[in-house]
Amino acid sequence: MKKILLLFTALGALTLSSCSNDDDNVAVVGSDTVATVVETPALTFTSAGDYQILVEFDQTYPQYDSALVYRRIFDSSANVNAWQLIPRTIFLDNGDEVDYDYNFTQSDLILLLGANFPLNEIPSDLTTNQVFRIVMIPGSLNGQAKAAKVDFKDYNAVIKHYGINDGTVKVLK
User: Fold this and answer.
1) To bridge 137 with a disulfide, which of 24, 66, 86, 132 should be the other Cys (CB 3.0-4.6 Å)?
2) Residue 24, SS3 per DSSP
3) What are the boundaries of each domain within the chain?
4) b/e sequence 109-148, b meaning 16+ C-beta within 10 Å
């Protein structure tokens, strides 16, 4: 009995060790496995929407795809618009905090606004005319960013890594 158990153990070890995982070496050229970016129109968080905004995609994404969401901010030191990765906590001068977050599914994304004080008291510059960019990363490409140590906080580094043309970003309706 011990010899049979030893034989099955050895066969199992050989079978498992002969498998390879080439998921991190996915070809992007000539396939549907490409990262994309979409942009929301200017959105406003309101109490009527419970400070949540539903963003519906024009397609359904596969189960293992990932979404990175960036909020447009004005960088006064460089006098340009910049993109800030969310989730994000904004610290106000009085010590209060405003939080941007999101929930992602294959067909939509819900943008969430929260605070450690009554939501109707959030300054309007943080609720009105908010623009977001959503970078969709196919599941087959997720390992590439980890291997290359892409800084997800840096929108420009992300789109450069995935070969996304920033000039062709589609604005959702």
Assistant:
1) 66
2) coil
3) 21-171
4) bebbbbbeeeeeebeeeebeebbbbbbbbbebbbebbeee
